[in-house]
Amino acid sequence: xxxxxxxxxxxxxxxxxxxxxxxxxxxxxxxxxxxxxxxxxxxxxxxxxxxxxxxxxxxxxxxxxxxxxxxxxxxxxxxxxxxxxxxxxxxxxxxxxxxxxxxxxxxxxxxxxxxxxxxxxxxxxxxxxxxxxxxxxxxxxxxxxxxxxxxxxxxxxxxxxxx
Length: 163
What we know:
- There is one protein chain.
- The protein is an alpha+beta fold.
- The protein has a single domain (about 5-160), classed as Alpha-Beta Barrel (ADP-ribosylation fold).
- It is built from four helices and nine strands.
- The protein has a four-stranded antiparallel beta sheet with strand order 3-6-9-4. The protein has a three-stranded antiparallel beta sheet with strand order 5-8-7.
């Protein structure tokens, strides 16, 4: 069995700000819920909303069967990549986020593998750079720094103690 596989199917690693019990079910769409609360009258939020809409339009045009960023569970395929994601995105600081090993409830749920580096949270790119990033996010196969979008609910298998 390869890394991330178990007898029941593939497992993934998901960062979550809420303590949840083994066996609990997480529903997709938390990111979409958060984005929907952004006030478009705030300058930073306007860019975030436009960027997320652009990625969603890109998904619909390029890979309509892929799960939407707005209605998925974000995860990493390996424990090492989950730790790398934490280090890259949050500087490795211990904060609110907890790490869980999860498995999709439905082994046939839509899955999209990309690289978290193709979604730049901090910069406001020019139009050409944004279009290139969107195309790469949805179409290019990553080798490292993989982010997996799971288009269905997941079951918590265990909490990962990072000490």
